[in-house]
Every structure is written in C-alpha cells, then in structure tokens.
Specification:
alpha/beta, Dna Topoisomerase Vi A Subunit, Chain: A, domain 2, six-stranded mixed sheet
Amino acid sequence: MPKKLLFPEDARAWLRRRFDHQHRRWLSGGGTWPLSVTLGNPAEKLVAEDPGSVRGWVEAWSQYRGGGELLWVERQWPHLGEQRLPERLSLPSALELAQVVGETVRYQRAAERYARLVQTWPALQTTAQLARHFEVLADYPEQDFRRLWALLTWLVEHPSSGLYLRQLPVEGMDTKWIDSKRRAVVTDLVQGMRQMASASDFYDLCGLRRAPHRVRLRLLCPRLRESIGGLGDIEAPIDQLAHLRLTPERVIIVENLETGIALPDLAGSVAFMKLGHAVSVLAAIPWLQNIEALYWGDIDTHGFAILDRARTALPRLRSVLMDEATLLAQRALWGQEQTPYPEADLPRLTPNEHAVFDGLRANVWGQGVRLEQERIPWPAAMAALREALQFRFPEQHSGFLTVHGSDKPTSN
C-alpha cells in the first residue's frame, strides 16, 4: 500500500489531536487560518503496485461530507493517464475544524461566551486567563454561566465589600455552588480583569471576609478544665483560643478526630485534632510556644507532610508512632493511599522520618501503603505515647491519670 495516504478517519484523528492541544489558543484569536491537511501524494509506481488501496483512498474521500473544503488535483501519468486525486483538506477557521472533530456545539458556545465576556471586560482579551477556562465556557449550563456572570459583575462593582461569601446579594449564590473549583475560576478571571500576573488569594482578591478558622481543642487535664469553668472539649476560632489563659505543660497534636476524642486524661496536657494541612495555624497560639509538643499522625505521605508543616508552628515538635517499626508491626492493618503527597522534599523532617516518607513514596513496602493512626491497637498506642512522654519526664511525673491502674480516661 502507498505510504502516507490519509483516509478521512486518519485526518480526523490528526485534527482531533490538534484541537485538543490548540483549542484554547484558537479561542483567543491564535492560530493561522486556513489550516491545510495534506492527504497524500502517491507516485505512479506505487499506485501501479497497489491500485486497490489507492482506489479505496480516492473513493473514501469522494464520499467525505465531514466539513472543511476538500481540494482535488489532476495528475497526468505516462502509463496510467489522467487521474483525479484528493490533495488537501482545508479548514478556514477553528469553528470549521471543530465541526470535523464533532466539537461544533461546544466550540461555538465557548466562542460566543468568550466574546460576550471580553466585550464587557476588555482586559480579559489581553490575558490568557479566560481562554484557559475553555471547559467553563463550553460546558457550563446556562444557569451556571449566568451565576458566574452575576458574581463577576458584583465583585467588580464592589471590590472591597468586606462581606462573607454567603452574604453576597447574588441570585443563586451559595457556598455549595462556589466550591473550590469554581472559586479557582473566579480568582483567575478577576485577576485577568485587573491584569494581575501573579496568583492571589480568593478572599483578598475579591475583598471578602474569610470565615474564621475553627479549631478543635481538648483539655486533657482537670486543672486546666477548671481554669475555664469546666470546659473540656472546645471548637472555636483560632484567635479566640489564642486568648485563653491556659498554662499547659505539653500539647499532643493528632491528625484524626476520633483519636483526639479517645485520648485519656493527661495531667498538664491539651490536644488538638483534625487540623490536616492547616496545622500551621497553631503558630497563632502563644501559650503553645516553648512547651513539650508531640505529633501523632497517619503513617502515609500526607501524614508526614502535615508533620513537616506543623514544625513551622512548633519547631521543637516530636513525632510518635510514625516510625518504620510501628508501620511493619501492623502490616495486617494497612490501607492504601490513593493520591500520595506530590512534593518529595520535606525539609523539617528528621532523617528517620524522611526515610519512612521516602520509602512510602517509593512503594518500598507495597503500592500506596498507609497505616491510619486509629488502626493501631489502642493499648499499644497508649504505651508508646506514655513512653514518648517519659522520654522527657521522670516516671513519677509521666502525667497519665489512671483509673484503677488503666489508661481509661477520667470523667470530665
């Protein structure tokens, strides 16, 4: 068969790849048009060797009705005489190309919405932000697009409202609609309207008030509970917790809520739980500085990333139950981490911690191995926690308040 003869399906496949890579640039006026696809240029000798294949190629293009302009050429060969062959498929515009690959409706909708937006906010045409959100322009239902338009309009007219997000007087607007993905779109588009090159925080950029970061705190010590009227389990904005007149001797930070709730009474101690990657907010609490601090999290890549971030708030923080021995001792209880933490370097980990983190990333013990902290048998976990505390404190001051010789927490 002659080489380099493109059948209609081959041309569509090539144009599909071109569309996938270039459609955003075309939306903002990029690209050179018309775009031509060369269909083949068979020599007489090759045609003579395989006339059936060439005939099938010509017939396929004779029946083509897929869009664009099909250009033919007349060839005069010494032995085969005059032949009419398909030469090029010419696409005069991006919309015509979209028709060939079955994207007419999406591309046309995106182009119309793009034009409406840049007509209202011309600055969007001079930046890449709007075209980057082709899927928003092409696929948003009309109701969602109207909401987006209304929100952008309101934010431009009220750049420093100081309102909470749910207070905005925009029809159909609520925190369920403006989820993290749509929030990223709004941030990008407002940056484009203001011709800002660097990324900015959504709330600062839009002049909105951020909802206060609420933190869950348990006072594990009866003395500390008495000092604030008997409260033992508190969830409050971080700035309010920072103003409590507490004098703990140590803090335990645990990754998961259930683990924090289950911790037993512990003299002089407080516990924070369920902070995740926001753990660095603890830097705002002055009474946590310069006291004994332990972190106990899941043995997975995100657990170590949170530990690394926690040390930005509490540099002297020590980890517990996050070592290789603990991981291997509970092999039967392993789960699987679906999406590992993307960054490889966590500079605030100790060498031993980093070795486990690197081993998890490299799948040394298996694909996506993780050990959630609550999976560790509770007696073993409490024994390890006691040992970690006794590393700094003599046995008689280890701090555990026991009930009949057990680690069962006392009543609040």
